[in-house]
Specification:
Layout: H1 2-25, E1 32-37, E2 40-42, E3 47-56, E4 59-62, E5 68-73, E6 80-81, E7 86-90, H2 95-142, H3 148-195, E8 197-199, E9 204-209, E10 216-217, E11 224-227, E12 232-239, E13 251-256, E14 264-271, E15 281-288, E16 301-307, E17 314-318, E18 323-325, E19 328-335, E20 338-343, E21 345-349, E22 354-359, E23 370-374, E24 384-386
Parallel strand pairs: 1-24
Antiparallel strand pairs: 1-23, 2-17, 3-12, 3-16, 4-11, 5-7, 5-10, 6-9, 7-8, 9-11, 12-15, 13-14, 13-16, 14-15, 17-22, 18-19, 19-20, 21-22
């Protein structure tokens, strides 16, 4: 029995030692592998990051001012057009015949004006003759060469001639007004016909084609949409918590989704006076320093990095070191292989991933690093195993 006991003991002791070793090295009691970083005093350059959408500042919707059928359309999506270029035409229906009829009416009224002018000249000549006759009869009456009845007859003829001249003058004015109205109607019809021709107002790019030839276009409905490529900008959204310091004129780096790794220079044109209360975001417009070629499609997403002025020198740690413990924000210090949690108050964050420490680490030694990554959750009772930096050889 003693011998058997010794054999079992010889087997169990190594197993217990092996279990204890495994528990302390690889089990729940094993040291937590962590990566550390030094606490530095430096002036960081804060940066803002947001997602935006490529948009066109000026977008033109071109269509008829009157309901009609689209007769032809000579451009397609992606075409570059020049100012004044004809894009398409609407079917005039009976407009040409109405123009011919109206032009004939204008010509007829011009003839009527000529006839009225001739009648006025005749009436004016008659009025001149009767007036002179009346004056002559008045002179003869003083010498008793004619009777008073003859003078009254001459006066009556003069009044009749005066009325005839007034009527002729009114007829001329009426004919002229009718002629002016007819010319205005003809001009309106010409304008209507001109509006049936769809022209581009600027040099631009066709981005949408809504209606095909043969379809009916309602008044005010867009047939073609075009943009001015030189007015492309980005509608940027930024988290309100990180938007401190955002202002017009700040330099930006723009990375389009279709061009990863290519950074285009730009700047903040303006910060919108209205924020998005639902998503809690600030809105801004970002313009390119130079229009990118080839043009990015309208609606493409873009990542925008906004560069802010450098902050005064303060303590700084990698942003990954900021953790939460017992509902407090802070960092884990690695002191002689043991962790110690220190609550801190943070400030601005840099584009390189560093964050200001405004308070909390004033008493920490310069040689005490902070934990930036751990493979398991750290507690004050944990033991730490420092792993080499990834960038070290």
């Amino acid at each position: 029995m003693r011998r058997r006991f010794l054999v079992v003991l010889a087997i169990l002791v190594p197993l217990a030692g092996l279990f204890l070793y495994a528990a302390l090295r690889t089990g729940p009691f094993a040291p937590v592998p962590v990566r550390i970083a030094a606490i530095e005093r430096k002036a960081i350059t804060p940066g803002l990051f947001g997602i935006g959408t490529v948009e066109a500042r000026w977008r033109y919707r071109i269509g008829p001012t009157r309901t009609g059928r689209l007769a032809e359309l000579g451009v397609d999506v992606g075409d570059t057009v020049k100012a004044g270029q004809i894009l398409g035409k609407m079917d005039p229906i009976d407009l040409d015949e109405r123009l011919i009829a109206q032009a004939a009416g204008v010509s007829a009224l011009e003839s009527a004006i000529s006839m009225a002018d001739a009648r006025l000249d005749d009436a004016r000549a008659g009025r001149t003759y009767t007036e002179s006759q009346y004056r002559r009869y008045l002179a003869l009456l003083e010498t008793h060469a004619v009777s008073e009845d003859a003078v009254e007859a001459a006066a009556q003829r003069d009044q009749t001639a005066t009325a005839a001249m007034a009527a002729a003058t009114a007829a001329v004015e009426l004919a002229q007004r009718e002629h002016a109205a007819a010319r205005a109607s003809l001009k309106a019809l010409d304008r209507q016909k001109d509006e049936l021709t769809l022209r581009t107002p600027i040099d631009g790019l066709i981005v949408e084609r809504h209606i095909e030839p043969g379809s009916t276009a309602m008044a005010g409905e867009a047939v073609i949409e075009m943009i001015d490529p030189s007015t492309l900008w980005i509608h940027l959204r930024l988290n309100q918590l990180d938007a401190a310091g955002l202002q017009a004129g700040l330099a930006c780096r723009i990375e389009l989704r279709s061009r990863p790794g290519e950074f285009l220079p730009g700047r903040i044109l303006r910060v919108e006076p209205l924020a998005d209360e639902v998503t809690e975001e600030m809105l801004a417009k970002v313009v390119f320093d130079q229009t990118p070629q080839p043009l990015p499609p309208v609606g493409e997403l873009a990542e925008v990095h906004v560069q802010l002025p450098a902050e005064p020198a303060t303590l700084a740690v990698p942003a990954a070191a900021i953790l939460s413990h017992q509902n407090r924000q802070g960092v884990w210090l690695a002191e002689n292989g043991k962790p110690r949690f220190v609550p801190v108050r943070t400030g601005r964050r840099s584009a390189e991933g560093e964050i200001q420490i405004l308070s909390g680490l004033e008493d920490a030694g310069d040689d005490i690093p902070v934990v930036v990554h751990s493979e398991r959750t750290i507690t004050p009772r944990s033991r730490l195993k420092i792993k080499p930096d990834r960038n070290s050889p």
